[in-house]
Amino acid sequence: MKKIITLFSLLVFAFSSVVVPAQTDKKTPAKKTETKQEVPAKKEESGPKLKKDGTPDMRYKENKEAAKKTGPTKKDGTPDMRYKENKTKK
What we know:
Radius of gyration: 30 Å
Low-confidence stretches: none
Mean pLDDT: 77
Number of helices: 2
Distance between the termini: 70 Å
Order of helices and strands: HH
Helix content: 25-40%
Largest sheet: none
Structural class: mainly alpha
C-alpha cells in the first residue's frame, strides 16, 4: 500500500512540475505602453503635512509638536487621566 501511495505522489509531482510551467509560459502578459502624466506643481501647504491615507506624517516637526499632550504625564510618558486637561470630552 505504501508503494502505491508513493508512486501516485511521485506521478502527481512529476505531472505538476511539467504541465503547470508550460501553461504559465503561454499566458505572458501583453506589453503595456505607459504614458507619463504631468503632475502639477505642489503648492506650499500651511496646514499639517499628511500621508496618502490622511493621517499626519510624523516625520515633520510641526506634526510632532501638535501630537504632544499639554497636561501632566505619568513616568512612562502617557497622559495621566486623573487630570481634567487629559480627559477627552464625549
